[in-house]
Amino acid sequence: MSLNKFLWLDLFSQKNDSEITVLSTLRSNLLFAKLSARELNYVSKVVHVRTYEPGEVIFSQYEKGLGMYMIAKGAVEIKIRASDKGESEVVVTTLDAGTFFGELALIDNDNKRTASAYALGPTTLIGFFKPDLLDIMERRPQTGVKILYQLSRVLGRRLSETTELISHLKKAA
């Protein structure tokens, strides 16, 4: 969020900085794009905000995934180990503020993390976990359906992109 936009939000809002960050991060996230202002406000009370120090592990490869993370501030590095016993990791990608990761954990019961995630610097993440989604689906089914629909769109798009990448790699080999 630009400094000017932040200042204007601050002038006209009774909310504190973390509420603005949570609401603006949710509003810009594809999973929550179809939610009304009231629904976004409800979800903002359900999610979990956490700040990570540089190099701190967010989650490790092969551990059970509990939910997804949205980057409100900072950056996250995603790394993989080539094998279960391998100690060295390879950087797969770096994600900046406004992006999200780990969303498959919201729907897969046996989801094991396929990579590790580390904070690159001081990083604020908003966690949205499976119990949060289940609670929303039970208490506010229409909101839950909107989130699940958007989640299915995101997963479908990422699957298509992965399939296309594999196709290009096979052609190059």
Gyration radius over CA: 17 Å
Largest sheet: 4 strands, antiparallel
**Low-confidence segments:** 1-16
Q: How many runs of DSSP E, i.e. beta strands? A: 8
Structural class: alpha+beta
Return the domain count: 1
Neighbour order of strands in the largest sheet: 1-8-3-6
How much strand content do the residues show? 15-25%
CATH architecture: Sandwich
Q: Could you spell the SSE succession in H and E letters?
A: HHHEEEEEEEEHH
What distance separates the N and C termini? 42 Å
| Count of helical regions | 5
**Shape by Cα distribution:** globular
CATH superfamily: Jelly Rolls
- Average the pLDDT over all residues and give the rounded result: 85
CATH fold type: Jelly Rolls
Approximate helicity band: 40-55%
CATH class equals Mainly Beta
Can I get a quick summary?
The chain is α+β, with helices and mostly antiparallel strands and 173 residues long. It has helices at residues 3-12, 17-28, 37-46, 130-139, 141-172; strands at 48-52, 57-59, 67-73, 75-81, 89-96, 100-101, 116-119, 123-129.
Structure overview:
The protein is α+β, with helices and mostly antiparallel strands. The protein has one domain: Jelly Rolls (Sandwich). 43% of the residues lie in helices and 25% in strands. The strands form 2 sheets. It has a 4-stranded antiparallel β-sheet. Strand 4 and strand 5 form a beta hairpin. The protein is globular and about 50 Å long. The N terminus is likely disordered.
